[in-house]
């Protein structure tokens, strides 16, 4: 049974041939349910969620719990898998981990905060909260520290947005540079 | 049922233990055996390196000359031959990305090229003569006038290596085996050692690029391009006959506005680097107004942004995004941001060299 489910999962990921699982899928209503649930899970994970999960989850969870045997010993299939070479589930899992880890990979080389300009000594001192002032005083009480952390978060997000805007602009400029040069060359040749 | 299984599990454990013990012991034996031979090799190579040093001066000029020869051959191959190349790009801490790269010279003499990103939704670039069309999943297809596709391999290196001589020196290192072929190894080093260096391996029979490493100043690999298969053919690949040239998007007209003047200059530029562009505009992401200069040595492009300190980041930031170094410093009046594939010390030197010309 679990082998079939693995196959369904692998088929969804386009990792195995359709022929072997398609027949089983056609004939087995339980497997069809599995198929649907996998798709709901996947779209949920990808935040597409266009597929409305029209299932009564509670009853299914209850039923699944009833059917669930209490596993006390290591699974037999574990060793069989290792020796028979059907290790795709392992490989697939580690692959997904790698993907998750590689998202948002900007290595911070070092953040220096030195010689900040005194831009906070504005005459209307009270108007702007003195938050995130480099070298500023540490918050004294808990009351103060809460809004600080929240605005800090906001400034972090804002900073990130600005950094991203600059990096993507640079990448676009690099792409356009060559086009521009060749364009100018073509114009010169026409004249 | 589980009662029956348990003994089996233990037996399997035992078996696995036995097998692994055997593997370990045989591995140790193999290492011992090879240790002896390494000693010999070391003493031999020490003698060789002494000989090498004495000849090095003579060889330097020779190496530069042969490097030129190999680069010329590479340029000829990539612009005149019909080929299909598969290669992968690996960056530190990232997934490997595979590409398919084809080039053909059609019967009417038009040069056609294709670069396809093979994973995920992909990205396809097709070049017909001097027009490159780009198809990406998240944007409208578009075309630009360009003699080369913008891909992981720097196009100046492929088509116009002579233009890089002001900034870099090319040196042949020796022969090696790459992608199952005999290859010539070349090193590309910036003349003032202020930029990343490169190692490249070219196929001895065709001159084709087989491997390309980008190294930081400490010599560790930042990015590696490795060719996994290479096919040179007499006839163009059938793919190119299927490209419907009429259905490709029309090239965008690039606007040639007048160059606005900035009241700042950069006192330091790495050797061979020139200012290639300057303007004032709004950033698409945030709408902030920036004064912009682009520097280029042909191989790498560096962007320098200057904006008022008030709307900028508020603190100094240095980070790396892919190969790009991102450095933003505040000099009291303005925020200076340097982005490009250069080492951090170089970016810092550029940022700190900014001087106001007429306040």
Automatic annotation (TrEMBL), chain A:
Keywords: Cell inner membrane, Cell membrane, Membrane, Transmembrane, Transmembrane helix. Gene3D superfamilies: Anti sigma-E protein RseA, N-terminal domain (1.10.10.880). Residues 4-76 form the Anti sigma-E protein RseA N-terminal domain. It is found in: Cell inner membrane; Cell membrane. It comes from the Bacteria. Its main location: membrane. Residues 170-191 are annotated as: Disordered. The keyword Transcription does not apply. It is a single-pass membrane protein. Residues 135-175 form the Anti sigma-E protein RseA C-terminal domain. Pfam families: RseA_C (PF03873), RseA_N (PF03872). Belongs to the RseA family. PANTHER family: ANTI-SIGMA-E FACTOR RSEA, PTHR38104. An anti-sigma factor for extracytoplasmic function (ECF) sigma factor sigma-E (RpoE). ECF sigma factors are held in an inactive form by an anti-sigma factor until released by regulated intramembrane proteolysis (RIP). RIP occurs when an extracytoplasmic signal triggers a concerted proteolytic cascade to transmit information and elicit cellular responses. Interacts 1:1 with ECF RNA polymerase sigma-E (RpoE); this inhibits the interaction of sigma-E with the RNA polymerase catalytic core and leads to a decreased expression of sigma-E-regulated genes. Interacts with RseB. This is Anti-sigma-E factor RseA.
